[in-house]
């Protein structure tokens, strides 16, 4: 079992731009690695997780990020990564797909 990811300098520029229950909307313009996305997701979920349940939707591009829910199609299509806190799972959207029906790039 691997140790939890630690915050990296890449995540210092991450900002939570919206919180809706156990969902965090996060912008991380400098995040480039899985470890950076994991650290950003963990940090965003820390104060809002209920029974360890939290999802952090992460964008690199601030102009494409959602600020409110529900997200529109353009915002959803531009999500960079999704951190699912309870199982400790990261999905990088271009590689893994982040929602049903999303096409990987």
Question: Could you please describe the fold and organization of this structure?
Answer:
This protein is an alpha+beta fold and about 100 residues long. The chain has one domain (about 15-90). It has three helices and five strands. The protein has helices spanning about 35-45, 75, 95; strands at about 15-20, 25, 55-60, 80-85, 90. The termini are far apart.
Oligomer: single chain
Uncertain regions spanning at least 5 consecutive residues:
1-7
Radius of gyration, Cα only, in angstroms? 12 Å
Shape, please? globular
Question: Roughly how many Å apart are the termini?
Answer: 30 Å
Strand order of the largest sheet: 1-2-3-4-5
The beta-strand count equals: 5
Main sheet record: 5 strands, mixed
Number of helices: 3
Q: How many domains, in number, for the residues?
A: 1
Helix and strand content put the structural class at: alpha+beta
């Amino acid at each position: 079992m691997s140790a939890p990811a630690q915050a990296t300098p890449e995540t210092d520029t991450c900002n939570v731009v919206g919180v809706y229950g156990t969902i965090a909307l996060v912008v991380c313009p400098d995040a480039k690695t899985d470890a950076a996305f994991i650290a950003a997701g963990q940090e965003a979920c820390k104060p809002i997780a209920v029974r360890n349940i939290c999802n952090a939707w992460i964008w690199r591009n601030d102009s494409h990020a959602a600020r409110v829910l529900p997200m529109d199609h353009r915002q959803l299509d531009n999500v960079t990564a999704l951190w699912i806190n309870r199982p400790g799972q990261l999905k990088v959207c271009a590689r893994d797909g982040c929602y049903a029906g999303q096409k990987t790039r």
